[in-house]
Amino acid sequence: MKRILPIIIFIGLFVFLAKSLFQPQTNIPSPLIGKPIPTFSLSELNSDTSLTDSDILGNISLINVWATWCVGCEQEHGFLVELAANQTIDMPIIGINWKDRDDLARKWLSQRGDPYIVVLSDPIGKTAIDFGVYGAPETFLIDEQGVIHYKHIGPLNREIFASNFMPIIKDLRR
Amino acid sequence: MKKVCLMLLLISTQVSSIEGNEELTSQERELYQQIIQEVRCLVCQNQSVGESNADLAKDLRTEILEQVKQGSSEDDIKSYLLSRYGDFVLYDPSFKKSTYILWLSPVLIILLILGWLRKIGVIGK
User: Which H or E run includes A43?
Assistant: First the structure.
């Protein structure tokens, strides 16, 4: 036993380190979970009015950070349209168009369908930094008061939504 | 060699003027340079925000620069980033409850090895 112990420790350490080395850190926990959304004032994509953080509160909703240049956004878009049309889940989606051009964004939505109840433009990306955004797409789940309960990095799909978002949504609606 | 150095110097001043930090005092510039080396570029992960050309890194540099100009301290800027991106954003994570293991594990491992060496008699009792 005495002789094998170092070998076991070595193998254990080796496996642990090798695993950490090849596993990309994609889901880094956000310090914003459990905190209210940051304050902002952004202009709405389809009008000249500007909206603040308090204007979008009142419902359990999703905040989706997207852009027309983002490949993952293209992938998840079909699901977002499907989700927006689903009246049983009844989940408003607020879009933040990140570092993008308004004309491109409008065109994109008219071609692919618009799942958002409102789209806010963040051309400089300042609000995205306040949201701790790494890269689009990112989706936040907020409650009526604007507290962030979950954050998903990367394209959303039916499976991820059902397994990661739905349990929290059910809890919140109880 | 002198020529090369001069060229490098010219290039480097050009780069910094593109970023618009020529209005900084030398103290502010030093702080700015120091912070961008210590902040991890989150989308490229093995580069600092100072080294990376990724879009997010540029945005973070602009933000840090703005805050340096406004006279924020190193701690202010770091806690600004920490509150948004978490411990992972700093290469030198702060010493707190969730990072105890991270900081103390080297000491622990050395102690374990020393204990083991003593036990098998490599070092004297």
Answer: strand A41-44
Name the nearest CA neighbour of A152 among A66, A36, A85, A50. Answer: A66
User: How confident is the model over B32-77, as pLDDT tens digits?
Assistant: 999 998 888 777 767 888 888 888 888 899 999 999 999 889 999 9
Closest Cα partner for A70 from A130, A134, A117, A26? A134
> How far does A131 lie from chain B, in Å, by closest CA?
6
Chain B residues inside the 8 Å CB shell of A124: 59
Nearest to A30 by CA among B125, B86, B4: B86
CB contact under 8 A, B82 and A31: yes
Contact check, Cβ <8 Å, B84/A31: yes
Q: Do A129 and B84 touch (CB under 8 A)?
A: yes
Residue spans of alpha helices (H) in chain A: 4-22, 71-85, 102-112, 126-130, 158-160, 166-173
Give the C-alpha separation, A112 to A118, whole Å: 16
Nearest to B43 among A125, A128, A135 (CB): A135
pLDDT of residue A18: 86
Minimum Cα–Cα distance from B87: chain A residue: A31
Whole-number pLDDT of residue B90: 85
ipTM for the assembly = 0.72
pLDDT winner (highest mean) among A19-23, A60-64, B50-54: A60-64
Q: Which residues of A touch B116 (CB under 8 A)?
A: 6
**How many of the other CB atoms lie within 10 Å of CB of B25?**
10
Regarding pTM above 0.95, the answer is: no
